[in-house]
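Hi R.,

Here are the chain sequences for the assembly we discussed:
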Amino acid sequence: MTLARISCFVFALLVVTMGQACAAVFYPSHFTLANGMQVVVVPNHLSPVVSQMVWYKVGSADETPGKSGLAHYLEHLMFRGTANVGPGEFSKIIAAQGGKDNAFTSRDYTVYYEEVAVDRLPMIMQMEADRMQNLRIMKETAEPELKVVLEERQQRTDNSPQGRFIEKLQGRFMPGHPYGRPIIGWKKEVERLSVSDARKFYETYYAPNNAIVIVSGDVKVEDVVSLAAATFGRVPKRDVPPRRAFRPAGKVGEETFVYRDARIEQAEILWRFEAPSYATQKEGNAYAYEVLAEALDAGEVGLLYKKLVMDLGIASEVGAGYDPDARGDADLTIAVSLRPGQSYKKLQDALRATLHDIAEKGIDPKSVDDAKRRLRRAAIFAREGLAVPGHAFGMALTTGSLVSDVEDWPDRIDAVSVDEVNGALREMVAAKRQVMGALLPSSRASALKGRKGASGLLRGAKAK
Amino acid sequence: MKKILIFVLAWMVVFSAAAHALDVQEVVGKKSGVKAWLVEDHKLPIIALRLAFQGGSEQDAADKQGLAVLTMDALTQGAGPYGAAAFQQQLADRSISMAFSAGRDELEGGVKCLTADKAVAFELLRLALTRPRFESWDIERLRAQQLSGIRHQFSDPKWQARFALYSQIFAGHPYSQRRLGTTETLKALTRDDVKDFAARHLARDTVTVAVAGDISAEALAEALDRIFMGLPAKAQLNAVSDVPDFGETPSVLVRREGTQTDLLFALSGPKRDDPDYYAVEIANYILGGGGFSSKLMQELRDSKGLTYGISTDVAPSQHVGLILGHAAVANAKTGEALDVIRSTMRRLYGEEPSVRDVDAAKDFLTGSMPLALTSTEKIAALLVAMQRENLGRDYLDRYNGLIRGVTAADIARVLERYFNPDKMALVAVGKPEGAVFSITRDLAKE
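And here is the predicted structure of the full complex:
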């Protein structure tokens, strides 16, 4: 650490209770290899272990229409063998080293990650570099894997009323937009994905100049950079097509909808509003939205909880979620669970009235201050998490933000004013793009009418 | 892979892992007599304390199911001079996390804070444990939340499977009871019930404590006295017996609309203090605990694409040892999946696993230990478990030896004793095809 960094760190420790902090969260080192691959290193000496995350700048939003689910399918195929590692062997080898590994696909990125004892870092880095260029996609393994993907869709969505509800909500929220379709893909399109589709996608997007590796753990920066150069650095760069700019999503049709299913016992309401992402924000207002979400949510001291759960007793749980790490527009979603014995229509009315009321009166300075302080402190606790820097830098660098945006985050939150938070709230409540969905148990009446979303009791009986 | 290994050898010197022994101290509060294990770590200004009181939801009377959970949730809803909102505000203002819950065998909880806030955090913990207010209005709100939780359970096929299974294999034992309660029992709980439960179960002689992070042994000893001195010296627990071995158990189908069937199966397993426990962990890893490396995953997912995931776990409780397995499969494929599960188990049961498989299991179990120690909270939680299971302060140092010391004969013995597929208790939730079940039930809805 340089002298400047050390005194900054000490300063942060001493003055953390005074609410001032240096611009720093994880103290990363950031490099770019000759072939364009980005490397971020965050030392953390709490335990002799290391987390490695490889983030590819491609996700479901980059799929061509008609081939939804391809990014996620390829994620599965990345475990099905390379020239050097047999099908299914990747995870077995990591496990034999006492490590954990997995992957996930999102709209704007696909991520592969491992956690192992630090002396295994050369192995896992070489293995990721290997499957970045040497993946073998073959019919014998690709076809059963497609079945697994369909089973996964069954489990998460088709067989889950909550899953189907969320899929419907998002589809209505951003019709005709890549973010409006499910990451796992529409069933009919996934069924038709071919081996050559997967190969083309791999060859197009999986290149070192389209990826970032983030290593966090019991390491020295210089060692990791040398290792990265000797592994990822040897993968030839490729021409990757520029990411398509998003066309605006279609208009929202019905702003309110109801989804019923006999398997649902606990009614819930989700209210989704358009909100800026870090990429689409105007004058940095995404930070105001973050403070807003924290003030509205915040466990039992959140404004919505206090009104809907404590005062009115009409909800049993409330939450608000907002994730500004996206290439396109993001959303702020409020989720409320109906208190048993209450009517969902009353809850909907109370929710609307409460939010409009808060927007009109404005959130008070103390609540804004409290929210800002909680967010800044969360950054201190985050330093303990092994894979937290991996997520923070990965989400940032794949969606158009910089390493410095992550490190400056506490200061930017601190700079948000009460007026900005209330401006964000008024803008959000008045947004044209908003959808409220209610997930409800089905009544006997609606089941007999054979309404869509009901468990299919009627249809099932007839099919026999 | 050879290419990769050659490469790796060249880098071994650079990334060698230093031997990292966790220094576990025992700290005793002189006045209260309460003991705690401590791992000091001053790299970050964070402290995590975890605790557990003996006796969880198994302490609920049959007509008071849900009481342990309700009581523990109520501890942070107003204590001492603070009402619920004020207490929560105190926590939120300093980003102190405090939460309590009730498991089957113990009442758990803890607090996590920045070093600068430890005096306040410990004082709030003292109040929550010794002076909870249990105001009626707050209990009503918690009751409503718990009722929501019960309703969520009804729509969760995994919960439906567990409930059906435990009703069978734990019939007549408190373990067959519902931790959150039934709609009826939860609605009948009173404020007096809650006060009584807390008074009987939160005591100094049944608490286990562990702390990790930025605090010295001296400071912790003082804090232990301040936090726990106000608790009664002795708890009053209901005696709970061990669960008798479940013999032949009829298979159960719980009918549920949908496209998939959830399968849950159980075998008798070792308790935590069984000398063969480590051999069972290894055998289980090979069968279904080893994620993508396990036999069950290879057969069901990799080669036949029948499921997105199948796993088995060694799941001991204080009064019973269990091995539990779960998979979700398409309705039409259930018969086939069950056949593959049984034949995979039978193969393992009948033959000795290969040296390669045993070594891979041992490699994983020993190699993954450091991953359990990556935060103050995780370390503190592990130390509580180590104390409750009487594993000794040097357990982490002995662990590798315990695993490596398991022999082929040990594994053969435990496979014979525990992994017989004919002794499996089975529940399916869904609309399975191709399989026959002895009992058919509807979903639990109360």
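Chain A touches chain B through 91 residues (CB under 8 Å). The CA atoms of residues 146 and 324 of chain A lie 32 Å apart.

Let me know if anything looks off.

Best,
T.
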